[in-house]
Design brief:
Layout: H1 4-8, H2 16-33, H3 39-52, H4 75-83, H5 87-108, H6 114-133, H7 138-153, H8 157-168, H9 187-203, H10 211-232, H11 242-250, H12 257-268, H13 280-296, H14 307-318, H15 326-340, H16 349-356, H17 363-379
């Protein structure tokens, strides 16, 4: 009798061509299903034309779209090729672009076994669909963080700093990629290229817009993010983070610093294990930690943001030099069900509306993995070994 495990071991499920086809099909399907309601893409598209016209990027344009634009002005360059297309074509190719750059970044991870790439791609597929239904740039943020890490690994610090800053000039929290600085073998080169790219990306929008306008726009962007951060604290669909989980489940609304500061200490403590830096598995564990941390401790987190930490969870699971135990497998199932699938129609609407969303339950499984990862980073030897 064929078991479920045997079924999923069939060549179809373990063929890179299958995964490539799936990751190409997902963005197309997401675009087709949302052609009538692609509000985020209309916001992104509008930012390009508003920048060209010298208009305020961060006010409401109710005749064009709902909600506000929240990215840095450099994003108008990124969206430009898709903004000049008809909407139906632009949203389709935008989704394909996002999916393919993350697919590329994952495939570039130097996993020991090809099956590891396949595992990551399957594990992330549902969250990719969730993000692309919203045309979310978070897919690219995950790719940029992974790419910056890989460039540091390959001693291409100039490219690493470009990826870090490109993400940060769109969404500030991508600056977390600086966590990889300590693994760089060319720290002076890293710092210099970081400063140069910072100047270049600051000046780049001024090629098509008045410098004073760009400076004022950047100032307004920061102000808008501060206001948005305050608004996120009590909304059901935002702050789907560990911060939101703690506040919403306890009903206590204290300063996030009481959570963020201890979390930052936990995050940086493994840096003191300098002797582990030489072990690739230790560095990849750091990548996983960064991908989870950036969402778990951001009030701007939402369901479609979880493509970032879910990729981190998958990397955490497959890159260690020891064999994962049954509790780790159970954790992966817990994450997949309650962090990935909880936003889907598999869960009854009543459960999502009254439990999953109001209490930010989506953040809990990933948080448990992150705390376990922190413990492993403090205590485990990541030296290569034969897996029993």
């Amino acid at each position: 009798m064929t078991t479920i495990r045997d079924f999923f071991r069939k060549k179809f499920f373990n063929d890179n061509r299958t995964l490539f086809g799936l990751w190409l099909l997902i963005p197309i399907c997401a675009a087709l299903f949302k052609l009538h309601k692609c509000n985020n893409f209309l916001i992104f598209r509008g930012s390009f034309y508003h920048l060209l016209a010298g208009q305020d990027l961060y006010i409401h344009y109710p005749n064009e779209y709902q909600d506000l634009f929240l990215y840095g002005p450099i994003f108008s360059y990124i969206i430009a090729p898709f903004a000049v297309m008809p909407v139906w074509m632009g949203v389709t190719f935008w989704n394909i672009f996002l999916a393919m750059i993350l697919y590329w970044a994952i495939q570039k991870l130097p996993c020991e076994k090809p099956s590891n790439h396949i595992f990551i791609l399957w594990f992330c597929a549902h969250d990719l669909l969730t993000a692309l239904f919203m045309q979310q740039f978070n897919v690219a943020i995950a790719a940029l963080i992974i790419a910056s890490f890989l460039c540091v690994e390959k001693e291409k610090d100039v490219w690493a700093t470009l990826f870090i800053l490109l993400g940060a000039f769109v969404k500030l929290y991508t600056i977390v990629g600086l966590a990889f600085f300590f693994f760089s073998r060319h720290k002076i080169k890293f710092i210099v290229s970081f400063l140069i790219w910072g100047v270049v990306l600051f000046l780049l929008p001024m090629l098509i817009a008045n410098p004073t306008y760009i400076i004022d726009t950047i100032k307004e962007w920061f102000y808008t993010l501060v206001v948005k951060n305050g608004n996120n604290l009590h909304t059901m669909r935002q702050n789907v983070s560990l911060l939101g989980f703690i506040h919403k489940t306890t009903g206590c609304w204290f300063s996030d610093l009481w959570i963020v500061v201890p979390a930052m200490i936990l995050f940086v403590l493994p840096y003191f294990r300098v002797g582990q830096y030489k072990n690739a598995a230790f560095r990849y564990a750091w990548l996983a930690s960064v991908l989870m941390f950036v969402v778990l401790f951001s009030t701007g987190s939402e369901s479609s943001t979880y493509i970032i930490p879910i990729a981190g969870v998958a990397i955490w699971y497959i890159t260690v030099p020891w064999k994962r135990n049954k509790w780790d497998i159970a954790l992966m199932v817990f994450v997949f069900v309650f962090s990935s699938l909880s936003s889907s129609d598999i869960f009854p609407k009543f459960v999502k509306t009254h439990f999953i969303m109001p209490y930010a339950i989506k953040a809990l499984p990933v948080s448990i993995v992150w705390f376990k990862l922190c413990y492993e980073l403090y205590t485990k030897d990541y030296a290569p070994r034969k897996i029993e």
